[in-house]
Design brief:
By secondary structure, the protein is an alpha/beta fold. It has one domain: Rossmann fold (3-Layer(aba) Sandwich). It is about 40% helix and about 20% strand. It has helices at about 20-35, 40-50, 70-75, 90-105, 145-155, 175-190, 195-205, 215-225, and strands at about 60, 85-90, 115-120, 130-135, 155-170, 230-235, 240-245. Strands 3-2-1-4-5-7-6 form a seven-stranded mixed β-sheet, with helices on both faces. Strand 2, helix 4 and strand 3 (about 115-120) form a beta-alpha-beta unit. It binds ligand GEK. Ligand GEK binds next to helix 3 and strand 2.
Length: about 240
């Protein structure tokens, strides 16, 4: 696993964050050190796939990056004749994702084939779905695109189907928000990011990753037509929500 040193270098300048080849190359290390609860989110995606994916249905990993959630789903699925669609609009991510999936030995590809697509999740058709994963991806879309995508997901899910929505969030209470941000930064320092790397990354993500409150997410899910939603994981300002149609 190559170490993430992207924001350690002076050469990075003050460009907004992009999912380019430099990021794709260090991505597993970046997520492991930056997103508290990331490993737990993948574990749960496997368990939820075992419970919710039904025979002959489609599963979607939207914003799949290197396919970590795709693999977790494939390893969890117990139902037959399913197919997973993994979509990302970063060419660098998709190129690496294809290589990683080809090397995966933990599950039998013939049992649940995976279709990897370089494309925009705002245009991905969703149909006959029993499970959809948005693992830390919705946060990168504009707000009205979030509404449209969640609506299309609920429409493409079968009754009883499941959405896993993991996001960075903000707290309504400014005091709590400041505490959670500070705890997250301390977590990153414990994971060997310097103060300078943390503040450069924070600036690069400004206006690129726009967090919302848990209440705003749950309201969007309910308005779109999900019958149930709830937070199953929270670690500082990172949450994972499950929503059931
Ligand atoms: C994981 N889910 O490891 N269309 C397609 N992809 C997009 C779009 C879009 N409009 N916008 C952003 N992305 C993964 C981690 S990372 C999370 C997901 C993070 C993609 C983007 O290219 C990137 O690969 C991914 O969403 C977000 O479980 O970096 O914090």
């Amino acid at each position: 696993m190559k170490e993430d040193k992207i924001y350690a270098s002076e050469a990075i300048g003050d460009e907004p964050f992009r999912f380019n080849s430099a990021v794709a190359e260090v991505f597993p290390d970046m997520l492991r050190r930056s997103i508290p609860g990331y490993a737990a989110s993948l574990e749960a995606i496997g368990s939820l796939a075992a419970r919710y994916v039904t025979p002959g249905t489609n599963c979607y990993d939207l914003g799949c990056s290197l396919g970590a959630a795709t693999l977790a789903m494939r390893q969890g699925i117990r139902a037959s004749n399913c197919r997973i669609f993994a979509v990302d609009n970063s060419a660098a991510m998709i190129e690496r994702c294809n290589r990683i999936l080809a090397e995966d030995k933990a599950s039998d590809p013939s049992e649940t084939p995976i279709e990897v697509t370089l494309g925009d999740i705002r245009d991905t058709p969703i149909a006959n779905a029993s499970m959809v994963v948005l693992n830390y991806t919705l946060q990168f879309l504009a707000r009205n695109d979030r509404d449209d995508l969640i609506k299309r997901i609920v429409d493409g899910l079968l009754p009883g189907g499941l959405l896993v929505l993991s996001e960075k969030v903000i707290d309504e209470d400014p005091h709590m928000q400041a505490l959670l941000v500070d705890l997250h930064h301390e977590h990153k320092r414990r994971n060997d990011y310097s103060q300078l790397e943390i503040s450069r990354k924070r600036a690069a993500l400004e206006d690129v990753l726009v967090p919302e409150t848990v209440a705003a997410h749950r309201e969007r899910l309910a308005t779109a037509g999900f019958a149930h939603s709830g937070v199953w994981l929270r670690y500082f300002n990172f949450v994972s929500i499950v929503a059931i149609k």
